[in-house]
Amino acid sequence: RRMALAAGARLGRRLSGPGPWRGHWTAAGRSRSRRETAEAEADAPVFQYVGERATRADRIFVWGFSFSGALGVPTFVLPGSGPQPRAGSRPRRRIQAVPYRLELDQKISSAACGYGFTLLSSKTKDVTKVWGMGLNKDSQLGFHRSRKDKTRGYEYVLEPSPVPLPLDRPQETQVLQVSCGRAHSLVLTDSEGGDGRVGTAFPLLGLKRLVQLSHVYMGNNSYGQCGRKVVENEVYSESHKVHRMQDFDGQVVQVACGQDHSLFLTDKGEVYSCGWGADGQTGLGHYNITSAPTKLAGDLAGVNVVQVATYGDCCLAVSVDGSLFGWGNSEYLQLASVTDSTQVNVPRSLPFSGVGRVKQAASGGTGCAVLNGEGHVFVWGYGILGKGPNLMETALPEMIPPTLFGLTEFNPGVQVSRIRCGLSHFAALTNRGELFVWGKNIRGCLGIGRLEDQYFPWRVTMPGEPVDVACGVDHMVLHLNVLPGSLEPGLGLGTAWTAQQRQPLGLWLGPERVGALRVVCRAPRQPGVV
Q1: Residues with Cβ < 8 Å from 489, sequence gap 6 or more?
Q2: What is the pLDDT of residues 105-114, one digit of tens each?
Q3: Pairing assessment for the beta strands 57-65 and 475-482 based on DSSP bridges
Q4: Residue 177 or residue 522, greater confidence
Q5: N or C: which end of the chain has fewer CB within 10 A?
Q6: Are the C-beta atoms of residues 454 and 384 closer than 8 Å to each other?
Q7: What is the mean pLDDT of residues 151-168?
């Protein structure tokens, strides 16, 4: 026994002392190379302990197609400077298939995804309240002066850049919401000290002013979607113009951009629309262009509406009593439950049986979804609806099994709390702080680490608790609450970069609660995940 103890002591001194053996022994008994040691350390869990009462921080994550600039990460788009990239420079990345943290100093309160561009807004008291990034060929992000030629503007904005708004009292004004269409944008502010206004800026991104709530719009106005008169042969690119809308009968409390039309909801529960109406999406009883916001009637007459939803050419509205209404395009069975027409130009009541009281609605390019008061999600229309490859079209809503959102006998309280949709995919947030996505995975827009379409709700792994999410055509933006220190500056999911070196990271798995502490683990890089 003494001999065994002595041998153990000698071996311990040998491993802990100087020399090539210290800390480099493998299970096979051979010494480990420096490269193997570095790889082992990189794959080891990273434990981070945060106090029970730690305050969470707001973070923005982006993923999907990057070459439009909509993700706001310039190094994804631009190669290294010079004919040969310098050491440590990032290669171009066309698709970011997993969530990536966007570096921002501002606290973002609202986000919207257009067709290749993004708007972010903050309720800050600073002069700058809105930032834009991505495609800007119709000035849907405003005018961003070129550094090389001061008389020209950028058609692609590769990083979050301030969008100037025509506010009389900018420090007293808060931006409440932003919304993006195919080539125009809407910005809803509070009252600049009392009256609320809505605006749109630039040819497609116009800013317009309302007496109560303020509405600003920007971008393309070819079809009157910015709520102003259509000017023949108007040039929208590199426009300095910012527009504010005329008065509504009441305060605008929500704005929603369709493909080439706009919806406005007032505090009186009334809905106004303008823009392209060839599919009936303006809901005004005709199929023409409407350049001034006009109140809808039809089955919405006298109804108190609390939410409107549109992204493609089909529109949905939810009333205060949980009833659902729809109008616009019905080529994909969106409104087939009440009419055989493929274009519906007046709001129609959609008395779906078995759905219950509707709480929220989402309307994409070919599919629709509603969330009822019990936290259940119903889908209908055409495409990948979330119930597997066998359900590709239906005129009547079908419920996605709650178990696909995490409901089990051990977690009986799980409910979906919010639904969103892009052109051909959906997203749902649960009351347990989880994000689920499904649908067409165009250019990695689902953020699930692969490019295949997703036929069932799939949970997106995040290092915190989702607050809200915005869906576009081929990208998404997520507002997240994270624990302080769980993500160092410059780090995101996937490969992270600093100014000095490349730091490959795996997927974040935490935070996972352990007693009074929280543990954030870093998993080894998985094959096929960037």
Answers
A1: 103
A2: 888 999 999 9
A3: antiparallel
A4: 177
A5: N
A6: yes
A7: 84
* Residues 2-26, mean pLDDT to the nearest whole number: 47
- Cα–Cα distance for residue pair 480/469, rounded to 1 Å: 9
Return all residues near 396 (Cβ < 8 A) that are at least 6 apart: 337, 352, 380
Let me know how long the chain is.
Answer: 530
Q: Are residues 508 and 525 in contact, defined by beta-carbon separation less than 8 angstroms?
A: no
Cα–Cα distance measured from residue 504 to residue 514, given in angstroms and rounded to the nearest whole number: 27
In the block, which residue shows the tokens 């990695």?
A: 444
Token digits of residue 310? 């549109």
3-state SS string for 64-132: EECCCCCCCCHHHHCCCCCCCCCCCCCCCCCEEEEEEEECCCCCCCEEEECCCEEEEECCCCCCCCEEE
Q: Which helix (H) or strand (E) holds 11?
A: helix 2-16
Contact in structure between 409 and 459 (CB atoms under 8 Å): no
Mean confidence (pLDDT) of the chain: 81
Give the C-alpha distances (Å, rounded to integers) separating 471 from 29, 113, 421.
52, 6, 6
State yes or no: pLDDT of 242 exceeds 50.
Answer: yes
- The DSSP call for residue 7 is H
Q: What is the DSSP letter of 260?
A: S
Residue 367 is predicted with a pLDDT of 98
Kindly report each contact of residues 275-279 with a partner whose C-beta sits within 8 Å and lies 24 or more positions away, as own/partner: 275/223, 275/224, 275/225, 276/223, 276/224, 276/225, 276/313, 277/345, 278/343, 279/313, 279/314, 279/328, 279/329, 279/343
pLDDT, tens digit, 9 for 90 and up, residues 261-280: 999 999 999 999 999 999 99
Max intra-chain CA distance, the chain: 99
Strand-pairing partners, residue 205, are: 218, 219
